[in-house]
Structures
1.
Amino acid sequence: MSRTWRSKALQDATLEELASALTTQLNKDREASRQQMQALLSAEKLVEEKRQQLLEVERRIFAVVDSVDDVIELNVGGVHMTTARAVLCSATGSLLAGMFSGNFDAGHKRDKDGRIFLDVDPILFERILRHLRLRRIASPEQPAPLPHVPEDLRPEWEMMIKYFGLDTF
């Protein structure tokens, strides 16, 4: 019955009424299409932003992974030392590990030869470095020995250990 009624309504409608109805429907369809296009463009923009974020995360991950085996040249209180970045980063969660994680390389003070400059006692820092190296090759059966620090250097040693966040290692 509704089909017959529609046919009858179409037969009785004037051309102006039909044109007006078609124009109204066309405008509604255009608006719906415009809104769908806007939604698609917004979604596309969001996908592109997420893609860029993922690319940045990937770049940072590969920079860290690639830099773990970097050789780091240090100037510690005027004494030149060389070690692997992995050694300096082996005390996970420490300030020392954070300093050499690769995220802050541009922020380090450097000497005239480009070595990272640390203004700390080189004798004490060398003991830290030696201990971190030994920890990398130690085993439960043969743990890395704690560094021997003379009694007169102990207060400075403890300050340095605390500063670098190594007091829990």
2.
Amino acid sequence: MSESIDGDHVEVNLGGKGAIDRELLAWAGSHLAIGDPARVDRIRDEIETGFATMAQIELAVSVFGSSRTERTHQHYALARDTAKLLGESGFSIITGGGPGVMEAANRGAKDAGALSVGCNISLPHEQEPNPYLDLSITFEHFFVRRLMFVRYSSGFLIAPGGFGTLDEMFEALVLMQTGKIEHFPLVLLDSTFWGGMLEWIEDKLMGLGLVDADDRQLVHIADTPQEALAAVQAEIDLAAVRSTG
């Protein structure tokens, strides 16, 4: 007999986002249908531990990007400066806790005196947490880690990166598109890097009717920390209007 994660049986204080959490837990459970009850229990425990550890986080932005970005690269500086401005504006910063863009964003949060969070992942080639974390938690399962990013973020900031970054970006878009989570700002950093992809989406996907124009509007783009902050804040303000409307 296979088992899956049941949102109604995860013992955690859901706060004011109970319905959203149940949707997210159902999504997390869709990644798992196995005949190993002990493993299901371990995953349930990992979710509960993640929720309990990250419960102190209120307003936060998750920053994604390449772990390979060098400290001397302009993308490192852009991620650090943007996270610093977000931190000064009242946001905590959440990353994957590793090097590259993740380190840059956590470093920017520390520059601003904001809460700096790392959600690391246990890998065969061990990824050490970067030295700029106030709160660090290591997950065994990618989808549990992803659940924490989505649950505790008010927005996603996507710096240049590779397949992992693209995976994180597109899964967030699918969750918004399908109504599994509320719309929140998803901001791409550096139009010269992302511009070709956006043109392809508009030309091929929208041109062939594979996605709607509304779906394209889920993605914002910014070239400066100020533009990124403005995009994040505008979308959060719009969401607040929707929730009271």
3.
Amino acid sequence: MRIGLVSDTHGELENLREATRQLVEVHNVDKIVHLGDEWEDCQVFQEVPETEAMIIPGVYAVQYRDPSIPNRIISTIEGWKILFTHSPEPHSNDLPEDPDPKELAAKQEIDIVAYGHTHIPAVEEKDYVLMVNLGHLKTEDKKGHPPSYALLEIRPREVKVKIVELTNQKTLVERTFTKKKITVTASDLKLRGLLNDTETAEKIWDALPIEGQANLWGEEIYFQIPVDAELEDGRETVELGDIGYWPPGPAVCFFFGPTPVSKGDEIRPYSPVTVIGKLVDDPKLLRKVKEKETVKITIYW
């Protein structure tokens, strides 16, 4: 599915009209989403009735205070949960029932945040959530960025993001993201996790399913795996719930608390590891796993 993103038109209907034309005629989108400022500008979409449109109000719009109009919408498209919002953070004008984007991201309840508001085009991954800001559609803007829009090409395991400058159709940003969901099982436990986009994680993903006998080392579980890789951005300390790859093993490691070499509350591997992902569910549940118990990593879908 192809989705076009526009926002922050601020009354410049001709720019919105041209962006809509390019999205429909050049990029053949299935849907256009206006991410706020201004609501009234969306009358332009009536000129392309064959293309589905979604409208999100800006945080200062009258519609933002209307409980009958959703300020944030979560849609599941090709298995990806996408939050459409004007602001990527909670706002003082939010209504009580409005979901908190940061909370949704922290709980891994969304995969993508599509937003506007800042007028700064950007595509980045934060804590396994893809953040897409298309920029703005003003002819001139004090922040200096040219008018632009975004295109999302969504497939079950892959999203391609492109930010396009309106005036010359030049691609400003183009990136591809994959979603690698895993399940970690041991005894009666079943935990969800996500692998990242490191080369090591790609190798492990290609080797799944993998299983091994749990070795306990403090609040770390590790077991050998048939994947050889060099250390990649090695970490001497990790975060709660991180999944690591330890080249000397080679082994995969799950961290759910301090290890015998930790200082204070830090989580320190025996030697540097490549962080390849993170557990979504509570990693402390791994305390139930016993020595030599079988642990299996499989693709979750």
4.
Amino acid sequence: MTHSSKLGLDPSAVRAARELARIAGQPIVDMARSHTTVSVERAVLRLAGLDGADSDGMPWVNRLVDAVRETTGLEHGVALPVWDALAAGGYPGLAALARDAAAGKVKFRLPEGRDAVAARAAASGSLAQGFAAIDARRREREALIEATSDPPRPWIYLIVATGDIYEDIPQAQAAAREGADIIAVIRST
């Protein structure tokens, strides 16, 4: 999909600004690549297809990340310990591993050598399926945009921010029915 400048900006100025932004942001990118968060590791497991929750309503991704964090820490991420445990325990999938991990039946480790190579390959395969699903949805979205195009301008933009989500929902729905093109429901500031 090709996009032309809607703001009439000089393409060379845009390229220069992007390069300056890349240079300015590189130290942050470098730092981020060597660190992780619980949220990032949960996202890795979701991308690999782990969903659902235990009987208490706690998402399996939370349970599994917590179990890995308690055993090996998160400094190296969850992928290697999780896919190593999948192979070592003969688990059919992430959900079964998460159930046993939540029950304290799994001992995670940071694999080395061939075990690390095998765990990395297995994780990459599982994550590739998640990326493929995202790519398919992106192509579907682009086709839909191409088919329906943008609505005529100016766009009607509405902000709903009563502070009560139960009041925000019907207001946002009413705005959509009345033709609003963009609706922002603000949950908190």
